[in-house]
Amino acid sequence: MKRSILLLFAAAAAQAALVPAMGLEDLIANSQAIVHGRVMRSWSAWDGAHKFIWTHHMIAVIDPLRGVAPGYVVASEPGGEVGGVGMRITGAVEYAAGEEAILFLYRTPVGYWRVTGHGQGKYSVTRDLRVHASLRGIDLVQRTPVHGVEPPSLDGLSVADFKTRVRRAMRETR
User: Fold this and answer.
1) According to the model, what pLDDT value does residue 119 have?
2) CB atoms within 10 A of CB 57
């Protein structure tokens, strides 16, 4: 019995990327762009060196909170399939056409915009206009709280309250 539990735990652990937890201030400090947008379409392609496959997602910007003009931004994640060749990365953020989300983005060394914090920077927007963290495929390593106080959860806030907190935190970190 113990052996099967251990094997089950090991299999589950292999399916998730282990990443340090980031609070709102961390997400803001590590993001050059923050947008509220809707996924219009997605496609996969090789990078310029033909070494890695990336899946790109065209996001129609609803509200540019930082760093991008109204219009579109392309968020990219490693992995995908091109010409029958597939590449899968544990913890890569997934998107769906028509999905609405608030994204904290950073510029990768190859020039692509990518969600900050291995998915922690993607907050899906529900039909009732609430935000929910998109943490599929990652396990967070919690850090010791500052002065013993846990940061408040952003999960489940209304879109308006979430954006208010983001804008306030951006002003306070200047």
Assistant:
1) 86
2) 25
Report residue 115: phi and psi, to 5°.
Answer: -65, 135
Tell me: the pLDDT tens digits for 101-144? 999 999 999 999 999 998 899 999 999 999 998 887 777 787 65
Residue ranges of domains in the chain, CATH in brackets: 17-172 (2.40.50)
Which residues contact residue 106 at a Cβ distance below 8 angstroms, ignoring those fewer than 6 apart? Answer: 30, 31, 32, 33, 113, 114, 116
- The label of the residue with tokens 């490693």 reads 78
pLDDT of residue 8: 34
The confidence score (pLDDT) of residue 7 equals 33
